[in-house]
Amino acid sequence: MSHFDPPVDGPDVRPGVVSNASDRFSISRRTLLGALGGGALAALQPTPAAGQTDDYWTVVAIPDTQKYAEKERLISYATDQTDWIADNVDSESIRFVTHEGDLVENGSEEDEWDRIDGAMSTLDGVVPYSTLPGNHDWAETNDKSSSVENYAAYFGPARFDDYSWYGGSGPRAEGLNSYQLFSAGDYDFLHLALEWEPSGTVDDDATPLGWAQSVLDDYPDRPTILTTHSYLRDDGSRATNSQDDGGEGNPGEVVWQDLIEPNPQIFLVLNGHWHEDDGEYHQVSENAAGESVYEVVADYQDRSDGGTGWLRLVQFHPGGGDETPDRIQFRTYSPSLGEYETGGDSEFAFDLDFDARFDPSASEDTRTSFQQGVDGYDGTVDTNLREADPESSDRTASTITVDTNDPQNSENRAQALLRFDDIVGDADGQIPSQATVQSATLTVETIDEGDGAAVHRMLSEWRADDTWASMDGGIQADGSEAATTPDAKTGSVASGSTRIDVTDSVERWADGAANYGWAFLPLGDDGWDFETAEGETPPTLTVRYVDDADGPPADGSDGSLAGDADGDGDVDGDDVDRMQQYVNGDDVTIDRDAADVDDDGDVDIGDIVTVADSAGGG
């Protein structure tokens, strides 16, 4: 039977269910982000701003329940949680419930599974919900190679198959990873529930990460919430080392780099597990598209009685933000205590514009990518410059090295050059001249982790067969060969995809500056190696832009004062200084139309000289 049909044992009475399998679940433009309101939290709501509605809808996150399940005397905290949820589905407009893993303390103890099953069963037929296995839900804690028989028996696909909101599970039959479909506030959402340290790679759908990517590919237009067990630590860092004794697990940083960062539909990530500090933390990260991802951890198991029933209420308020229409408000509540926790890590909010982020009809931006050999593109040029081998060209090498100590103990430098030719123009797939670049991300495949590089925009020409010697002793970030200020510094990089924000460079090239690519100048003596255009995974440049073809022309006819680079209404030495900083690659803002006094589409030394003469004569 289709997962989008009502259960065979009766009508589907749960809110927000889509039951037509032919519906592609495209996002409709918001008329309201919430349909129901009021309820027990009304007293805690902020005073509505002008134009703000009190209506909201809620996702509930249940952190680790392992201590409650372990002891009979504590299971009431879990039953209090699910009883409260069931009693408040309407008053709190609860649309979805997600359990963050570690349902039990000892995965081999059936008594613990019986207890938590009794608590979670309260939600059956009442509200869409998900579970996922934490590290304690395997038969042997921290060993993904051990049995998951008990998890599969109690919370496998058979528990959910008859519900219309249950999308399915994979890649294994035990249902350790699953997805759910629910609707709220006139939007259709995807929820991904991924096992503790989901293993594999995104390009292999026989693995958890690959399966998750395939689900995202099937529902590309759905705003997505992802819940997993171990991801963000409560000290503010993502987990970087796997805790899996069997060696299969991917830590949180890998899940970020490989799955979350490249998929802009994922806007919220929830997890438990980490309780080294107070068990709470939240942060905002930027994905490859330059959009915000809200990351939140909650785990209260180290508190008295295993957490005393604290859970998370994630409330979506239309029109509740300070400067953007919508707000995601987090509150921490214990039904057992009848109390809210109000500290900064317990009560906080994120603002975003759902229409601008998720409604295609509300967005005017376009995305294009450039990768050697993909869609006929063959304009990637790269090479290595090695101080230890100054006359040799590496134009055909499949990898590039960036290092201050190559070979080891030599104190010789290795630099890299990379360029994407013909990315600006009028042809299909190119970035239109004078387009407004929203974001530009360079992705390279790291094959040997290291200290990384500072990525400087090149200001001078170079060829693929250039060497350390032909470039007169390598590249200098001196404002002549390369910009003094880098577009980005990678910091230490791990194996896998490494993404670098190069928006500033691409923005300048779209505005007419000459495209000479980037120099990668080493940050340390632990060498960083990544694949070239000749490698198995060539570098990729992904750009989001708005075509300004119908906007004001770049020839000064928009009314700007020629030479007034800082926009203060006159032309003086401040304009000259600002233009010099801009040409040197410093992080300054100028009126490029006004600064391009010779109307050649670029701001360069010639413009600076002209403005300096004008300022001196004034």
In short:
16% of the residues lie in helices and 24% in strands. With 618 residues, the chain is of the alpha+beta class. Helix 2 (75-87) packs parallel to helix 3 (110-120), helix 3 (110-120) packs parallel to helix 4 (149-155) and helix 10 (573-583) runs antiparallel to helix 12 (605-617).
- Low confidence ranges: 1-53, 550-559
Residue share in helix: 10-25%
Question: How far apart are the first and last residues' alpha carbons, in Å?
Answer: 81 Å
Largest sheet: 7 strands, mixed
How many helices?
12
Radius of gyration: 27 Å
Oligomer: single chain
Q: What is the tally of beta strands?
A: 25
Would you tell me the structural class of the helices and strands?
Answer: alpha+beta
Shape: globular
The fraction of residues assigned to DSSP E strands is 15-25%
Overall mean pLDDT stands at 85
Describe this structure in words.
- The longest helix has 13 residues, at about 75-85.
- Helices cover about 15% and strands about 25% of the residues.
- By secondary structure, it is α+β, with helices and mostly antiparallel strands.
- It has helices at about 65-70, 75-85, 110-120, 150-155, 155-160, 210-220, 250-260, 355-360, 505-510, 575-585, 590-595, 605-615, and strands at about 55-60, 95-100, 130, 165-170, 180-185, 185-195, 225-230, 265-270, 280-285, 290-300, 310-320, 325-335, 340, 350, 365-370, 380-385, 400, 415-420, 435-450, 455, 490, 495-500, 520, 530, 540-545.
